[in-house]
Fold this sequence. Notes:
- The chain is built from 15 helices and 13 strands.
- Helix 6 (about 95-105) crosses helix 15 (about 330-340).
- The strands form 3 sheets. Strands 3-13-12-7-4-5-6 form a 7-stranded parallel beta sheet. Strands 8-9-10-11 form a 4-stranded antiparallel beta sheet, with helices on both faces.
- It is α/β, with parallel strands linked by helices.
- The longest helix has 20 residues, at about 15-30.
- The protein has 2 domains: about 1-90, Orthogonal Bundle (Arc Repressor Mutant, subunit A); about 95-340, Rossmann fold (3-Layer(aba) Sandwich).
- It has helices spanning about 1-10, 15-30, 35-45, 50-60, 75-90, 95-105, 125-140, 150-160, 185-200, 215-220, 225-235, 245-250, 255-265, 310-320, 330-340, and strands at about 65, 70-75, 110-115, 140-145, 170-175, 200, 235-240, 245, 265-270, 275, 280-285, 300-305, 325-330.
Amino acid sequence: xxxxxxxxxxxxxxxxxxxxxxxxxxxxxxxxxxxxxxxxxxxxxxxxxxxxxxxxxxxxxxxxxxxxxxxxxxxxxxxxxxxxxxxxxxxxxxxxxxxxxxxxxxxxxxxxxxxxxxxxxxxxxxxxxxxxxxxxxxxxxxxxxxxxxxxxxxxxxxxxxxxxxxxxxxxxxxxxxxxxxxxxxxxxxxxxxxxxxxxxxxxxxxxxxxxxxxxxxxxxxxxxxxxxxxxxxxxxxxxxxxxxxxxxxxxxxxxxxxxxxxxxxxxxxxxxxxxxxxxxxxxxxxxxxxxxxxxxxxxxxxxxxxxxxxxxxxxxxxxxxxxxxxxxxxxxxxxxxxxxxx
Length: 342
């Protein structure tokens, strides 16, 4: 296959370039259908004139159809898109990029989905599907899975509806308390959705993500909280997101003193309540009840999900602290930006 691709690139490079353009158009239509031509052109950074000729070609070959609300794929278009997936990943160099990214970050495995979720938010759903597929392959007979919150993690939760968990016993449990923002994006809600979509069990952790040191010491004396924490720390699998430092601080309603610390310390990324600078040094840590950074090395499988060019610095900063067995599932937007910085 690699030799064939090399020969094609040498003999008909324009053909491969054209395929990539049309594949991207089909993929973007699938993610956003029904979608209008103007919006699609903006997403793909193409002129409407160029896009018009391409979609006319795709329509003439019955791969897309025009609807009142916009363009959509035909069944033939969906079949073609699915059939070309591995081939296009190879021609676009995604497999090589995955290996390169894993080496740069010092982790065991990276999975990169096409696109940039900053430009097309529905790319998060593709990240979610990729995470669900990886998780399916890691499941054993009995599993405790601890999860964090976030919009990408919510996409993972929705994607779990389509995996096969027959014969598997799974307990989903939040890694920590609520951070702020929409309830649907909280760890408790995501753990519950994952349990519902897989017919599994879940256990809640109803408390704020940030507590005072005094309150933390009191809560840790509660037998029920300690029992939940024991389950969290004995997890077989951790599914977690990675946040941009200042955005996460705002969601937590961080006090002015701590916000100044983050700004002066040039914090760029956040995970598990720890804030990191570009070099991966810990700038600040919030007082929390739940999974801690030092708990991670004892956990068998750790899967991080985060995408978008804007998350590149955050991902790179956190990964300097991640166990080397970690798996990262991201998108091209983040991956290319991370590699640019090397």
